[in-house]
């Protein structure tokens, strides 16, 4: 068999090509892909050839957030019935390294994460018509879920893990004043996840009105455009800070400075966004005794994301702004880089 793939050769060099597909082996399933979302890391690979020390060093099939339908089961595969809509968990920890044995598979020393250029050879991704994966990596959705919704399981899992990091540190979120910096797809899904966890007084900041419109649609109590109304941030910095918990989803230096100014003494900042090295306000970190914790990827939260999307306890549809067919992959990536009009841009396949 053959399939079309979206393969990135270098920055701005994304080609739709043809590749061979093997029949599913024992314990594997063959998927006919349906929808795949363009993530921030995909965009960094496309625009800049990577981010920080992670660089594209060989051709890589993009994509790590996608849905498809079961086409066929390999021998002994305990997968859903053919035709079932599923999301693919792109995370493949080894299960045997020191961190896996400690119950920290997110930090696996031999992690294979689909569509990632972190390792060499690169772990190939999901932007293709046909895909073979272990049956254990697919999670089924109930009837009525759309492929576009199902493809949001991976980014929602990232956000559920970030919220789990927060609740591990501060406990119940009900009654806390929470701020989310950056209203891209991850920021908006963090907003949805913190509201699911009980927070109601959630402030969202961004540079774009369109992003903030989506935040209000998803339940933000207040929004601030820091490009046009930066003065609105000032009350949040009174008395050493007025915010209990902040999720920084922007990884922008100005947003992080604002976070350190707005957080209360002994408040908590969860770092979700990533970038290269930057200067941090160390005096504020020490002087206000701030807890600043990073949050990477997910593990058990992937199944939680599938359940919440399938029940529409979290409605991801407002973040999906555009869908383009695979043959227009380069156009879709260019569109995803335009935050004035786009939020979550998805590719569609031969579903």
What does the secondary structure layout of this molecule look like, with pairings?
Elements: E1 2-10, E2 13-20, E3 28-37, H1 40-48, E4 50-51, E5 54-55, E6 60-61, E7 66-73, E8 85-88, E9 91-92, H2 98-101, E10 112-113, E11 130-134, E12 138-140, H3 147-150, H4 153-170, E13 177-181, H5 185-196, E14 201-206, H6 209-217, E15 222-225, E16 243-248, H7 253-262, E17 263-271, H8 282-287, E18 291-294, H9 301-311, E19 320-325, H10 329-336, E20 344-348
Parallel strand pairs: 13-14, 13-16, 14-15, 16-17, 17-18, 19-20
Antiparallel strand pairs: 1-2, 1-6, 3-7, 3-11, 3-20, 4-5, 7-8, 8-12, 9-10
Helix pairs in contact: 4-5, 4-9
Structure report:
By secondary structure, the protein is α/β, with parallel strands linked by helices. It has two domains: 2-152 and 316-348, Quinone Oxidoreductase, Chain A, domain 1 (Alpha-Beta Complex), CATH 3.90.180; 159-294, NAD(P)-binding Rossmann-like Domain (Rossmann fold, 3-Layer(aba) Sandwich). It is 26% helix and 29% strand. It has ten helices and 20 strands. Strands 3, 7, 8, 11, 12, 19 and 20 form a seven-stranded mixed β-sheet that branches. The chain has a six-stranded parallel β-sheet with strand order 15-14-13-16-17-18, sandwiched between helices. Strand 14, helix 6 (209-217) and strand 15 (222-225) form a beta-alpha-beta unit. Helix 4 crosses helix 5. The longest helix has 18 residues, at 153-170. The radius of gyration is 20 Å and the shape is globular. The two termini are 16 Å apart.
């Amino acid at each position: 068999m053959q399939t079309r793939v979206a393969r990135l050769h270098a920055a701005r060099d994304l080609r739709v090509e043809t590749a061979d597909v093997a029949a599913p082996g024992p314990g594997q399933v063959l998927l006919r892909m349906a929808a795949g979302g363009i993530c921030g890391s995909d965009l960094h690979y496309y625009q800049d050839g990577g981010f920080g020390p992670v660089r594209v060093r060989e051709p890589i099939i993009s994509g790590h957030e996608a849905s498809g339908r079961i086409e066929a089961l390999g021998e002994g595969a305990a997968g859903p019935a053919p035709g079932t809509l599923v999301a693919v968990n792109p995370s493949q920890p080894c299960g045997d390294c020191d961190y896996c044995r400690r119950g920290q598979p997110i930090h696996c020393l031999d992690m294979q994460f689909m569509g990632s250029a972190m390792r060499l050879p690169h772990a190939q991704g999901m932007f293709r018509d046909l895909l073979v994966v272990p049956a254990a990596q697919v999670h089924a959705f109930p009837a009525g879920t759309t492929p576009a919704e199902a493809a949001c399981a991976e980014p929602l899992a990232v956000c559920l893990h970030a919220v789990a990091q927060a609740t591990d540190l501060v406990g119940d979120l009900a009654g806390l004043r929470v701020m989310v910096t950056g209203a891209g797809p991850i920021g908006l899904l963090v907003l949805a996840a913190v509201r699911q966890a009980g927070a109601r007084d959630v402030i969202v900041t961004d540079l774009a009105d369109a992003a903030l419109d989506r935040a209000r649609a998803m339940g933000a109590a207040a929004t601030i455009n820091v490009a046009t109304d930066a003065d609105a941030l000032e009350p949040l910095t009174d008395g050493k800070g007025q915010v209990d918990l902040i999720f920084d989803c922007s990884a922008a230096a100005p947003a992080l400075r604002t976070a350190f100014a707005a957080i209360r003494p002994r408040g908590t900042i969860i770092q979700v966004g990533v970038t290269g090295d930057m200067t941090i306000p160390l005096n504020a970190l020490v002087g206000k005794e701030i807890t600043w914790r990073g949050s990477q990827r997910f593990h058990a939260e992937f199944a939680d994301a599938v359940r919440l999307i399938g029940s529409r306890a979290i409605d991801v549809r407002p973040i999906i702004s555009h869908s383009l067919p695979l043959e227009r992959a380069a156009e879709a990536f260019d569109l995803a880089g335009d935050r004035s009009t786009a939020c979550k841009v998805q590719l569609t396949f031969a579903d």
